Amino acid sequence: FPAEWTILAAVVLENVLPDASDRSAPLEVVALGTGSKCLGADTVCGDGTTLNDSHAEVVCRRALIAYLHAQLEQVASTGRCDVFSLASPGTVSGGTCSSVDDGAVGVPSGGGSAGGIDDSSVGHAEEAVSQEEGRSPPHTKHRRQDDRHCWIARIPTVRFHFYISQAPCGDGSIFDASEAAGEVPPAQPSMVEPGSAHGRGDASAAAIGEGAMAVTATDGVTEVASNGGAKRRRVDNAHRTGAKAVPSGESDPLGPGLQYHRVGLLRTKPGRGPATFSMSCSDKICKWGVVGCQGALLSTLIRPIYFETIVVGELYDAAALERALHDRIPQLSHLRPGYTVHRPTLLSTSVRFVHGRERADSAMEPTRKAPGPAGASVAWAQQWNEDDMVDVSNRGRKQGVPKKQKLNALKFCSRLSRAALWASFNTVCAKLRRRGPTPSAHSGQTYWAAKQQATDYTACVAALRAQPPFDGWAGYGKRTQLFSADKS
Q: pTM for the full model?
């Protein structure tokens, strides 16, 4: 029987055929990630060589960034790839990019709406973020990103979908387990397995993952036997999350059952020992609905990329996911060109990940110890070399590298570490430079400084963080991003 289980996340690329039938070409998996671990605050490294957060959703998103790097290298070589193409002459005019990318429709800069924020609010938010992270506030009230970098367009028929084998930790994992199954939009069968998709499955005790606990008792916490063997902690009629409310906001009441958590709060992930400042996956996915999943560096080259759908396997609860990923996003206006508040369609599937918690529990023998979460994290990106096609890490370090080995060269680091992805990004920019202007790294430049060139992206982050509940965002801030690109 399996001794370990893990969580899987994947990004699927869809290319809608340009005809009236709205048919799609075969779906392609372009990035995968597994994992459920996170480094404690006392072990976080400030030189960008380790993975602070190895939850599947975060690992997969980093693998997606690696895939996009490979796609842009192909653009540098041939002018086109599966995802991007060179923008036609004249599509960049008037100081802002035109809507060459149908996948990211911007909010108009004029007008405004009740409850929205304007550029002055963004300026105040940027100043607050700057003071919190120990840097001088940027004077960017009217500053816009250098739009010469908008000459790469995403192909309009390309869409991205996100799959998670289990509900994301944090707010999306808090729900009433006693509620009857509700109707939800079915996932497209081709996205998971022919004939296998349906509405929400039952929230059984077997469908428990790290950071969430199934609850069946009616008074308080009880210990019950699982399959007659190892005991598991259950709490009355509520799925809980192991993620902790951020210290700067409201706290959980810690009452019985559904009174234990306060929903809608920002949360940090539990770590290996000491607490972490890594935000929960529910919070990060919600943030990607505003700023995109491409990250700050890539936003200097391309428009934001948003997931069209999010498909969840175990622990799917429509109301909890709607609250966590949609309802918490504040009303934002005056976002920079290409940025919007995007709420992906939420779908469920009955197809269970074969190495997930539910399968592991069902295969457990009565007298054996319950399976535990795997310590390793595995990543894969399409177009990685077949001889080295997966990236495996453990405790934030590339697996196989001795603990005493200093991570002073990229060959000793995970390909998904900040240092490695930044080096990859600089390589992409160097190759693209013969096609058009790109950001350039200079000697001694820090990773933090490179990200600040993405002024539109950082302004949207500041706009989001100016509104509750995101004004309580934790994270490690600037102190873990002051390393320079000096590894080879």
A: 0.80
